[in-house]
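Throughout our pipeline, every protein is held as a single compact record rather than as scattered files. Nothing more is needed to write down the fold, since each code stands for a local backbone conformation. The record that follows is passed on verbatim for readers who wish to inspect the format.
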Amino acid sequence: MAELEGLEFGKSDFVLLDEVTMEQFLDNLKLRFEKGRIYTYIGEVLVSVNPYRTMEIYGRENIDAYRGRELYENPPHLYAVSDAAYKAMKRRAKDTCIVISGESGAGKTEASKYIMQYIAAITNPNQRVDVERVKNVLLNSNCVLEAFGNAKTNRNDNSSRFGKYMDINFNFNGDPTGGHINNYLLEKSRVVQQQGGERNFHSFYQLLRGGSEEMLKSLHLQKDPAVYLFIREGAAATTFNNDRLGHRAVMSALGVIGFSQEEIKAIYQILASILLLGNLQFESDGESVQIGGVEAVSHLSELMGTGPDAFRKSLLYRTVATGGGEVIEKAHTEQEACFGRDAFAKALYERLFSWIVGRINDVIQVKDYNPLLHGKNTVIGVLDIYGFEIFDNNSFEQFCINYCNEKLQQLFIELILLQEQSEYQREGITWQHIDYFNNQIIVDLVEQSHKGIISILDEACLTVGNVTDTVCLDSMDSKLAQHPHYTSRKLSPTDKSMDFQKHFRIHHYAGDVTYSIEGFLDKNKDLLFQDFKRLMFNSNNQAFKEMWPDGGLSITEVTKRPLTAATLFKNSIVALVDKLACKEPYYVRCIKPNEMKSPVLFDDARCQHQVAYLGLLENVMVRRAGFAYRQSYARFLQRYKMTCEYTWPHHLMDSDRDAVETIINKHGFQDDVAYGNTKLFVRTPRTLFTLEQERATLIPILVLFLQKVWRGALARMRCRRLRAISTIMGCYKRYKVKAHFWEVERRFANVRNMADYGKGVEWPTPPATLAQFHSATVTLHRRWWARQIVKNIPPSDMLEVRAKVAALTALREERKDWGLGRAWERDYLVRDSPLTSSTFLHVFKDLKVRDEFSQVLFSGFCRKVNRFNKSSDRGLLITDTYVYKLDPNKHNKVLKRISLEAVTGLSVTSGVDQMVALHTSNQDDILICLQRGQLCPKQDRVGELVGTLVDHFTRLVPLEFLPCETEMNQSPPSDVRQCFQGLEGDDRLVSNLYSATCPS
């Protein structure tokens, strides 16, 4: 229970009253009103009193205080009911609704706005853009619908002149994802006529007082509302609304919702058209009727997007089709023209309002919703509908409004009183019956088929002939004479508060209301000439065409007679009640403390009347005699089984009832509950609140336990998966290795019998694990291939082969032509110059005796180039010990002798010339040209010189000390050098041959 407020504020729950009497109820209500406590509970029903002043109880701090709390954990508040409905929707995935009821001026509209603000504030913690968009549209729709659907009445400065039911759709996370708005019975008669002291809809005054000069000029309007007949009555009426700020807020809200600039312009064009229509005057000369003022027609046709002639014709003539299909035009009388003008103005506003609601629904409706992907779509409904009304002159609109309140009261009786008592009987719970007034008899008086007032009205509207309101009243008197809740002056001649042939009275649950029958039939028929529909359908404004789709019908096209306004309203209210009945209801019962809109005055008689017809006293009695909470055993056990060790995680008892009883006894609540046939009944909310607190404490522990178990399961699954992956990978790797061996064996099985010993066989790509092994295998094959080649070379050719292999190793890819294709003779001095051969032989013998060399590596004629770029012919003799430079012109005189060990390198060019540079340790380099051309045509001896020297040095010293190098390639690759180390004889030749033919 709500026990957090001191006794000086009275009882925060009427169930806690010492005695359930009207006096104590009103005393407690008055005390709380005077102390600024405008909210009080009756169980889960919230009673709200209009404070008529600003209350500092709706800020962010208050929202945080009620967010996620149980209903009775904080003092009574509208936020508590909103949070309870939201939690019930989220916890049990069940649709809920908040029904706000009360008479006009009791604060229903403000309550619905606070409910919307609270739901918007507690949802979407992750700030998702799509959810924020839906919330903004829902919140801003209130501003727009108030401007176009609310008006100032004598009872309320911001009275809703239409009924609104809004469904808010939520996803499984509890975030709003869409919604839908239903509007009921807009009081369109207010567009053309208001009672004294009242105003037309806010939108007209906001436009004139808040619109810019430029905007009003484009709409052909003036700022003074008193200029326009339709709103003149309310021009001087005071209101708490600031029309200028209201217009600014509406324009901003329309943009946020998603209305385009063209659509906003169309909205205000219709408002301007209605104001200008009201000022149209009709003049009759006895034979025909004309419109006074050409300029007004021009302005109206411009605003509506029609031609002036077509607009004038629709006001002055009516086009009808005869039975034979002939189309004729019938001129209006002055009275018919005025009637048509007013009907057109009302229809314009009604269509505009319905179009605005439809556009809002298009923006916020749930599109492409898939429950399998998004989870169950739950709903919270908020009903803000006109309250019970009793005016000095009550017409067709008040009749429909009061019928709607009768239906909602019947729903309240069924859900709160009747169902509760019947459920106690069904469950076998001891119960003392509570008497209450069941208003079903009044509902039947209005809506019963063939006998109800709506059926009588429809029958009168469908009867051919001149059926007047008086004839309809006579029919009602004759058919309803015996009904205890219906009377008229004809049935009660002594009651002078009613007039003959004008008034009838219905004894509503909220009191007696006298209705004037005048205008009932016309408003019920709601006839509008088809000419106006065609006029608007043919407008060049697309928005106007959308509002009047029925204008596209042909004049001669026969259509089904439309349903009357009363029947349409009855059908929509029946559908609304059915929609509310299938949801879990939460009620806000609004009370108007006085008629003066005073924040301090509490009218006891006025409040007693409202408490009586709202059935609040009976509600207290039922709640005190009954139980605050009931739930099936299975659902109760599912929610609270973790609070008892004997039921968690599964119980071993005979039934769920026994398990629930164990939970109750364990917590010591056995004196506060009753056990029904299928449900547990809890008397006070404190018991439920205690269980919820313990459950909330245990949930984190259980979540951690479940997370631990689940994480362990995931880790084991992952480990098993990794093991399986490792096994599969191991098997696959072994298969790839074996497959590679098999493929190598297949490809190289017959290499001994191949002409090239398998050199042209392509090696298969090895798996990564065999990369090093593959490299070694290729090396082995290449060495084996080289050995096979070497074995077949005659001994006489081995010296030349060695030199060519060495040259190939040094000059590969460095020179295009280096003499590979010819025989290498090494000693060319004798062969190239027979005339001097004897002299050379003599010199050769002397040098051999003196220097004791054993082998001539290379000899031949050349051209020496000195540092001054002067060239001369010379002879070159290279032995295994010295390099000699000879002068052939002086009998081969030795000009220079250089020890072969002093030679540090050899440089050649990459072209086809025969330039060779011998580098020495003492920097005395020798630059010579091997004279390709005159002495040795078509012979390239550079390769022979390089190969001979490389072969010589390779056989004498390790390769890392090899003195020979080229200008383009300074030294052989390191891997080749390693292969050469430590090899002798044929092995070294094989290695050279392998390195020369091995791919780079």
About this structure: The mean pLDDT is 84. The two ends are 92 Å apart (CA to CA).
